[in-house]
């Protein structure tokens, strides 16, 4: 199967790292297509970044549909444009936060989230409520690491992240850790070894869910909320969405 993994920011190094994480866990007959938009923020760390990136994500979804991919993954912990992507896609669309929560709820009684900056914590809490996992989460913590610092992670920055994970376990009562940024995807195994608890990377989780849906021949229902968008005219820079 062909799996399109969209990094919604424009940092090419992060796109490549996300692609490596996906390939490391994918089946031998799965083809990983890692991509990112041509326009938008270098990193997504606030509501403005996410809103602008969301429109660009939809352009990549459309390209993936033209390429005949079997699944799309939105590799940003905010799951930007997820509902809209499911409206326009014919294949399943998976957000990495939703995927991580699902797997964490299976392997632990309560999970903690460790993300990048404190200003992104309300977004993580919103997703917990949206997906119905708030009662299974022991809390969300921020390591105060800018997203782009994850591209070339220094040892002291890794220790900073590990310490927040330890606090989530020892102080908050987490039995597993969900990493709150797709840019952390390559750190999951090392952190799990250090912490001796499951550490869930949403990119890897989404890849395995995509492969499972494909094998089960399940795709997004096109009735109700995820039916095709209502036909109408768009003008200006978004006229390509006219139907």
TrEMBL record:
For this protein, the record's Gene3D superfamilies field holds: 3.40.50.12500
Which InterPro entries does its entry note?
Asp/Glu/hydantoin_racemase (IPR015942), Asp/Glu_race (IPR001920), Hydantoin_racemase-like (IPR052186), Iso_Racemase_Enz_sf (IPR053714)
Lineage, top-rank taxon, reads Bacteria
Give the similarity note.
Answer: Belongs to the HyuE racemase family.
- The name under which this protein is listed is Asp/Glu racemase
Q: Which gene encodes it?
A: hyuE
């Amino acid at each position: 199967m062909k799996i399109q993994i969209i990094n919604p920011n424009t940092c090419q190094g992060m796109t490549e790292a996300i692609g490596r994480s996906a390939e490391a866990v994918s089946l031998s007959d799965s083809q990983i297509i890692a991509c990112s938009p041509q326009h938008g923020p270098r990193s997504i760390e606030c509501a403005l970044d996410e809103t602008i990136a969301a429109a660009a994500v939809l352009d990549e979804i459309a390209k993936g549909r033209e390429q005949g991919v079997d699944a799309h993954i939105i590799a940003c912990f905010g799951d930007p444009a997820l509902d809209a992507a499911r409206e326009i896609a014919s294949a399943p669309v998976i957000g990495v936060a939703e995927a991580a929560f699902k797997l964490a709820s299976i392997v632990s009684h309560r999970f903690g989230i460790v993300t990048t900056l404190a200003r992104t914590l309300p977004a993580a809490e919103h997703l917990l409520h949206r997906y119905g996992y708030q009662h299974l989460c022991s809390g969300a913590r921020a390591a105060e690491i800018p997203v782009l610092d994850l591209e070339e992670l220094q040892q002291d920055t890794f220790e900073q992240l590990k310490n927040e994970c330890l606090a989530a376990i020892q102080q908050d009562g987490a039995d597993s850790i969900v990493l709150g940024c797709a840019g952390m995807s390559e750190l999951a195994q090392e952190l799990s070894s250090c912490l001796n608890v499951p550490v869930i990377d949403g990119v890897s989780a989404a890849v395995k869910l995509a492969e499972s849906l494909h094998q089960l021949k399940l795709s997004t229902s096109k009735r109700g909320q995820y039916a095709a968008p209502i036909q109408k005219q768009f003008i200006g820079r978004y006229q390509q969405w006219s139907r």
